[in-house]
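To the team - adenosine-5'-triphosphate complex, inputs and output below.
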Amino acid sequence: MSRELHHLPDASHAWHELPTERVSELLATDLHAGLAAAEVGSRQKKFGPNRLTFKKGRSEWMRFLLQFHQPLLYVLLAASVITAVLGEWVDASVIFGVVFLNAIVGYVQEARAEKAISALAQMVVTATTVRRDGRRQRVPSETLVPGDVVLLESGDKVPADLRLFEVRDLQVDESALTGESVPVAKHGNVLALDTILAERGNLAFAGTLVTYGRAEGVVWATGDRTEMGRIAWLISEATDLSTPLTRKIAHFSGIMLWTILALAVATFALGLWRGESAFAMFMAAVALAVGAIPEGLPAAVTITLAIGVSRMARRRAIIRKLPAVETLGSTTVICSDKTGTLTENQMTVQAVFAGASVCTVSGGGYEPRGEFLDAAARRVDPARRAALMECLRAGLLCNDAQLVHAKDRWTVQGDPTEAALIVVAEKAGLAHAAAVEALPRLDAIPFESEHQYMATLHDCGERGHVIYIKGAVERLLDRCTDALDNSGAPAEIDRESLRRTADELAARGLRVLAFARHLAPREQRRLAHRHVAGGLTFLGLQGMIDPPRAQAMAAVRQCQQAGIAVKMITGDHLLTAEAIARRIGLAGASARFAVSGRDLERLNDEQLADVAAEAAVFARVAPEQKLRLMRALQSRDNVVAMTGDGVNDAPALKQADIGIAMGITGTDVAKGAADMILTDDNFASIEAAVEEGRNVFDNLTKFIVWTLPTNLGEGLVILAAIVAGVALPALPVQILWINMMTALLLGLTLVFEPKERNLMQRPPRDPQRPILTFALFMRTGFVSLILLAGAFGLFLWEQTRGATLAEARTIVVNTIVVVDIFYLFNCRSLRGSTLSVGFFSNPWVLWGSAAMLAAQLALTYMPVMNRLFHTAPITAEAWLHILGVGLAAYAAVGTEKWIRARAAQRRSQA
Ligand code: ATP
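Output:
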């Protein structure tokens, strides 16, 4: 039993040069039973959680200061300094105040987005298999303490620094630590003291990945004390918020900035040449620059993406890499696993073939109660059929699952395929515990997708040893040289007839496993692949049902309506896969609806691309073939999302435009390679994520279409005034006010716009298509012209009617804002009318508009605001004019949309 460990042995202990007994002594642990629960608790208190304490990439101050690191803000800061030098203190401080406010808003938003995204990453808890209190258990990796005994298998992330023992073909990818991507083989032997770190083959380091094999290891360092912890200062936690889209927009903003600055300089020069004062012209140039640059754009993009990420998380899709949010909206093909994703992964054996006949088995779920019936539906006593019992016993023993009965519910631990084999054996009266005790396991070859079988070696006492093997029918049949007859005696094998039986079961949608055994000499204690390469005795077949998920069927239909092709890629048999695919609704018109991995092997790249496009089911696909399939689909300009869970899926997940790992059944390796993780392993969550991805793009487009006319319109108003040689219709501080306030109170509310009804009836977005299509570009121009005519027109007209300059400017500011509010409602749907999306469906828009109006009233009527922003109270009549312009703008855009919609309808009818 474990004893207490008060402090860690001296860190200079060279664990690689100590024999395992000494290691276990130093760490006060028992390598066979592991630690006792109480001791784990007390060590946790002493050593803390097994977690790296990341150092923040940048200090908070630095992050705040970086907010000022934008070309636009340099322009504004310079303007503020020059205005101050010119003695305009109020203007200077208003400009500076706005810049400061902008930095605060940017800082807060960015921090929130980063926090949300890094919090999501932590939602995916990694679990580790340990031995504690003499039992195997799955525990969160954070709970590990020095002395814990960890069981590693392929796909695991090594959870702490371990000294290995009981190593079986272990290979570890240590690239996270050493940069070397070729996996290294590990062993349990003692090494010389002076062995360098990279060559300490009997140690496994936290953060590295097991790519093959199994091993046991004892923890000697956790958390920051691990090798990874020592270099953790190299890894900062900073989440990268940039994506292809944000970079494109940053680039676009950059171009705009220089164009506008050039225009501003030209304005300045023109004015001077005309003989205007340098001060007035400087103000005009600043107003132009400030007005025309869309300063809210980059922040809005980041916020929209971050909101998309959290909405997806609520629908059980965790985004690991931000660009995936954008890509999801353009997905054209989803390649999904079958088991657990499209189906329930709730296996129940329904048919057993042994001897020469098939029995059906009644009962559902994991409750071990049911009956065996023959072809004529008569009850069969399994105990009287030796071959049947031997086939069931093989399934029971060649098995790593556990059936758990708690609170009147039967659940399983481990692989549901294997659990089903325990349930059916118990239905026949074979008790799991008793069988394991009677024939103790000596060794095992675990199931790996690439071999498609599993084997175990058992001690039968006096009678010698026996090997039980179970796996795919094709893998086992050719290795069998005889078969058990009804009485349980070895007889000649008829492979053809067995294949036919297996196909009949598979065609019913059952997953079929074959069973075989091999007698082994008493001295054999180890099991290798060569021991089961031939000479086996065939025992029988078991067929299990795995019902399709109801949600998945609905989601598949949704995807098809949305123009997204759904393809099933599975390791299962062709006929099983095909039957399930039909039930799920994947069947197409194509003759080549389902193909097998062996067929794919024969095709060249060009042919493969054809088949990949046409077929919907790919069965018995080896993990390496997934990568080829992926490339074939991408060669036809598809944007492909693909699921995967095993170690060998990692390359395909990386190649996919969106790699999706399973949160429950996926290996750590697959999760590490994925862009997105499904917390419920359900296909429906992929569809949900695509939907959210499309919405993110929609809302971004809405924001951009809304914001650009404001900037363009303001720029045009200033330019018109300069060309006409009249006073500025709006001062720089007023324009700053409009831009900042409308972006915050109006524009950002579009980010919360709910999904439009036809979102999943449209075809996927072409990633090459620009955000601003020609139609939207025209609309932007059109609204800018309305702004120009309305604002500049009122500015001149109100002055002829006796308004002062300050009043006329106040009217201009209010006109721009009111048009912005009306246009905001236009932008709630890009194609449909405002009413089509429901007037109240986005309360943010309503609250934002109300707040904006209140702010305008304050700007117009509060003396302090009048002083700060050079505004003046205006008459009720002026408000009527302003309202008129707003309504006209709303009606004009509404009409434009209506005409376009009609034209589109005519085209589609034609
Ligand atoms: P997918 O999630 O892609 O549908 P799958 O479960 O169909 O995956 P694999 O898990 O790779 O594919 O299984 C492939 C084949 O290996 C199965 O059809 C079955 O014949 C066999 N097999 C599956 N699980 C086991 C197991 N635990 N032991 C032995 N053989 C197995």
